Amino acid sequence: SGVAYLCQLSQYNKYVVVKMMKKMKLLRMNQVENVMRERAILQQFDCPFIVSGFGSFQDKHYLYLAMEFMAGGELFRLLVEKKKLEVAPARFYAAEVLLALEYIHKRGYVYRDLKPENILLDAQGFSKLADLGFCKPLKRGEKTYTTCGTTDYMSPEVMLCKGHDRGADLWSFGVFIFEMLAGFAPFESATDNDRYNKILRGTIVFPDDFNLHAKDIVSQLCTVDVSKRLGYTAAGLEEVKQHRFFAGVDWRAMEEHKIEPPFKPRQLGAAQLKQLHPLKFKSSAENDPEIKESLNNLFANY
């Protein structure tokens, strides 16, 4: 819903990412509620496994959201480079994402947009969840009916618009583990119709060399019946943490970032960042019609 720019806070000599979102586009795409909620959530959340927000502002035509700069880029980029991951690094990233989801769920939210593109790496190689636009508060027993997320990661109940809750995150987490280890999504298909049918049936064909504990946790997470999905009990994600796939993980050390990340990201150094030229652009919004006051009020307090 916007374009992200690397910016420097000159008085603090600190780099941040500023997401610039056009108000008219947000209104046309019915995304106002999502961006307002994302800003509010970033203000509330304080988790080492979720990207931090530093502030927001607006002008007549745009919203601006300042966030933590993750110098390592997307986990997706690492997966493209490596093709697929060995069990140990996949377990590391899965554990960090699980801690992020646990934080979100314990605060009464569902994330709803898990995918490698939304997992960012910092300069040391630790991962954090980003893009909280679809993150939504849900009371226990309550469901939401908005179809959102990436098709390959959608659970059957999301796809069928039956109403979904935190169980949809569990399904997506299973897809995530599979993709890291296999190098492709479990329901990847030649046509959308084939993908749709595979997801509704929960049909997963595992590679011959797929780790047995990983196969078990993916199978339990990607179960069509939500009530039987691993982690959906009252114990929540603690049940997932106790699975054999995570055997040997020191969760306290993981929470405190005392476990060495499996990969050190390549990144621009301070000298290279300083050599980047300031971006100069002419805003296309200058020719846009003035937004009505009643519509602009929807962005009040951003």
TrEMBL record:
What the entry lists under InterPro entries is as follows:
AGC-kinase_C (IPR000961), Kinase-like_dom_sf (IPR011009), Prot_kinase_dom (IPR000719), Ser/Thr_kinase_AS (IPR008271)
Alphabetical keyword list: ATP-binding, Kinase, Nucleotide-binding, Serine/threonine-protein kinase, Transferase
**Cross-referenced Pfam families:** Pkinase
Domain Protein kinase stretches: 1-246
PROSITE patterns attached to this UniProt entry: AGC_KINASE_CTER, PROTEIN_KINASE_DOM, PROTEIN_KINASE_ST
Task: Output one GO MF annotation.
Answer: ATP binding
Q: Which residues form the AGC-kinase C-terminal domain?
A: 247-302
Q: Which domain of life is it from?
A: Eukaryota
An example Gene Ontology cellular component term from the record?
cAMP-dependent protein kinase complex
Return the PANTHER family for the record: CAMP-DEPENDENT PROTEIN KINASE CATALYTIC SUBUNIT PRKX, CYCLIC NUCLEOTIDE-DEPENDENT PROTEIN KINASE
| Protein name per UniProt | Non-specific serine/threonine protein kinase
Q: Which organism is it from?
A: Pyramimonas obovata
